[in-house]
Design brief:
Elements: H1 10-27, H2 58-73, E1 78-80, E2 90-93, H3 112-116, E3 121-139, E4 149-162, E5 168-173, H4 175-188, H5 199-212, H6 220-233
Antiparallel strand pairs: 1-2, 2-3, 3-4, 4-5
The structure holds zinc ion.
Length: about 230
């Protein structure tokens, strides 16, 4: 999932992403993480249902590292394994502020429950065991760059899952972390946020992408102006 209201530090984050990629070139052949290619809609692999994991192994820990670094390098706050072509029920999230190592704009916007969850969060075989209330948010997706639409989700969720050590965990959260978890869990079912929109709206966007591809990335100034305007909206 992409969090688009990062008003400040846009230049800085691009430099950071570049720094990560540069260090990668040095580290890539010594068995460190790899920044992977993120699949874009309409890649058919994004429509597959991912497989559960019986046993958490070194493969999963390596995959988690790749996911986390790929997410940071793309300024995302969440990424699911099928988005990099691995059909495994695994996802990673970091909704913390930049000061804490994440990519979120403001620490003050985090809820108490969100702050209580240790992040970056690595989740394997997640299942929602409780969902309460409704909330809406303008969601974006690293697999559908440049598009943001309002999606309704549970406001509070409890998710049972395995962590990277294979230990069972129960996450109780709300706020952006709950929204992001639901967005990433959809990816494990081959569902995209566009599928939550009205048929007319989603068909329009899907057809537009299939016909014209994705908009060119904007210059830094343009992005900053737009973010300032959009920041008021949410
Ligand atoms: Zn997504």
């Amino acid at each position: 999932m992409r969090y688009y209201r990062y008003l400040a530090g846009i230049l800085r984050c691009k430099i950071q992403a570049f720094a990560v990629q540069s260090s990668l070139a040095i580290n890539a052949d010594v068995g460190d993480f790899m920044i992977r290619e993120i699949l874009k809609f309409p890649d058919p692999r994004l429509r597959e249902v991912s497989k559960s994991t019986d046993k958490v192994t070194e493969y999963h820990r390596k995959l988690a590292e790749d996911l986390i670094e790929t997410m940071y390098a793309s300024n995302g706050i969440g990424l699911a394994a099928p988005q990099i072509g691995e059909l495994v029920r695994m996802l990673v999230i970091d909704t913390r502020s930049r000061e804490e190592g994440g990519r979120r704009y403001k620490y003050e916007e985090m809820t108490e429950l969100e702050r209580a969850v240790q992040q970056p969060l690595i989740v394997i075989n997640p299942v929602i065991v409780k969902g309460e209330g409704k909330t809406t948010f303008d969601e974006g997706c690293l697999s559908i760059p440049g598009y943001y639409e309002t999606v309704e989700r549970y406001n509070y969720i409890e998710v049972k899952a395995l962590n990277e050590k294979g230990k069972e965990i129960l996450i109780k959260t709300d706020g952006l972390l709950a929204i992001c978890l639901q967005h990433e869990m959809d990816h494990l079912e081959g569902t995209l946020f566009l599928d939550h929109l009205s048929l007319i709206k989603s068909s329009k966007i899907k057809n537009q992408i299939k016909k014209h591809g994705y908009p060119k990335p904007k210059s830094e100034e343009e992005t900053e102006d737009e973010d300032v305007q959009e920041g008021v909206k949410v």
